[in-house]
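Working notes for the structural subgroup meeting. M.R. asked for a predicted model of this chain before we commit to crystallization trials. I am recording the input and output together here so anyone reviewing the notebook later can reproduce the run.

Input as submitted:
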Amino acid sequence: MRRAVDWAFRDRRTGAITIGQWPNLPLWLFLGLTALAWAAGGLGDPSGAAIAILRIAARLCLAWWALDEVLRGVNPWRRFLGGVVLAGQAILLVAAWDPGGWQNVSVAYAIRTVA
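Returned structure, recorded in token form:
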């Protein structure tokens, strides 16, 4: 069991166990843009265009973070986590372009609103 934990969570550069880290730039941008979209929704943007653009930008930042984790994650856990988030973003993107797809997916709404 200890070997499995070491393999999955041990940072290959420092040797420390790393499960999570402070957010880096793409994750901070995702959090900030998500908060702005939430705040803009409370302001009652009649067209919804600003909210849609903020949501798309936030999702792009999250995908940027996930791809960075897949390519440069410090351990298999971080690369796996990035892969799961990246796959989730891809599924949401496919759902957004499916005309009969999920109606309540925020990315689908955002892409349809901007397009």
